[in-house]
Amino acid sequence: AVxxxxxxxxxxxxxxxxxxxxxxxxxxxxxxxxxxEVLFGPCVRRIVEGETKASxxxxxxxxxxxxxxxxxxxxRFVFEKEEKQVSxxxxxxxxxxxxxxxxxxxxxxxxxxxxxxxxxxxxNMRTLQHMPDKxxxxxxxxxxxxxxxxxxxxxxxxxxxxxxxxSFKYLYPDEYADLDKALSMRRAQYSSTLSSxxxxxxxxxxxxxxxxxxxxxxxxxxxxxxxxxxxMQRKPKYQNxxxxxxxxxxxx
Length: 252
Hints:
2 strands, 70% helix, NT_sf, Hypothetical protein af1432, GTP diphosphokinase, mainly alpha, 13 helices, HD/PDEase_dom
């Protein structure tokens, strides 16, 4: 699953291979990094070894960081209802999360190590329903505060959006369900609007002499659910009125 996610980014074969093997040494004591190098080359070994070591260190650094009390504090923070004590807990958690991100970046001197870790976390989030409820919330909060920002730093927007949306689903299930229902009622309209706008833009570009030899691909996108919900929480004019938001859909 990790390798498939990496392949969707159209990355090099060595990185996809590393995705297949990323937890091989950790799960199988009989296999060493040297074995991986002999079979798959030094590049694959470097990525697998880097991801394994960085994961161990960051796991220690994040232990206890995303406990239930901090999760509760973050809930209040998002809804802007924090009291002084809660606000201090939020500030501490956010700082520790930032430190954890920085530690991961410092240890993973090859950006491909982080890509493997992001793909691994996304796969874990997709199968999170099999975990106990408290564990799900802890992992979701860690994902939202550490791994989604890492995906943002690397410009892996597809991973970032899904990591945020899955975290949102487990941290705020009622709000997620309400927003999903509201969007479902409008998606047919969104699809029609995007198709029409994309065709209009293609027609305009085809008539522009300066664009005759340009290789262009026009795509539509729907704003991520977490990003949309967060915007609604932060700006009163959007609260309880999704139709006031003008960038739910867009062309690229």
